[in-house]
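Sample pair:
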Amino acid sequence: MGGCATMLSVKKADRKNDSSTFFCQKLFYGFLHDDAWVMIHDMHIQGKQERPDLLDVASWRRNYLQDELRRSNLHPTPLGQFHTWLGEAERCPGILESTAMVLSTASSQGEVSSRVVLLKGYDEHGFRFFTNTGSRKAAQIASNASVSLLFFWEALERQVQINGKASLLPRSETEAYFASRPQGSRIGAWASRQSEVLPDRETLDRRAEELTERFAEGEVPTPEFWSGYLVVPQTYEFWQGRANRLHDRFRYRISGDRWTIERLNP
């Protein structure tokens, strides 16, 4: 937990690109040989001179020193390991949305799209999220059920990637979750024709106001165009950042009725 605060304290210096700040970063992240730092600094200055309209992102770097991951410390099941890491992410003050995950989907023609959604449930059956069934992600899932979930907890220098198949949840589960949402979120679900072109913000706000009046005297029902999805995992990968890019990576892969654990090269 102390590592979360340490990372936040140095982060302000991470995103400046003047020469003096660059060498301050060397003090923070000074795990490279001096010759390497000279080369990086030269690239930094050259990049500024050649393209002053672009940020010199090649010079933005830091070492990962928060933790390590050993095979002996892994939970025998990927769900158990995920549960442990999610709990630590939720308790870390440097992480605002521990349940935020990048959901990647692909069309039947292979066109890939990604977006951040929130995890709304997980157990031995899979991982749940909810969305508008008229959205691009829903359309892609309908034609290609293979998806990827990625949790990135920067303050802990950790990632979890889950690959699997997505399918619609039973309507009863969708309605139960929708009923638990705040009134404003339920109105928002009705107001948004997700992924369709919107002429201006006022159009969306006007719809929300009209719906607020419409449902003022009663409950907001679950829209027919809104549903939950269950992602059934086929593989999990747990990634822990380490110094000099020698990261720890472990993959859980289903084999028969049990999980096989493999260490991967970083």
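Helices lie at 2-14, 19-28, 34-50, 78-91, 136-143, 171-180, 183-191, 201-214.
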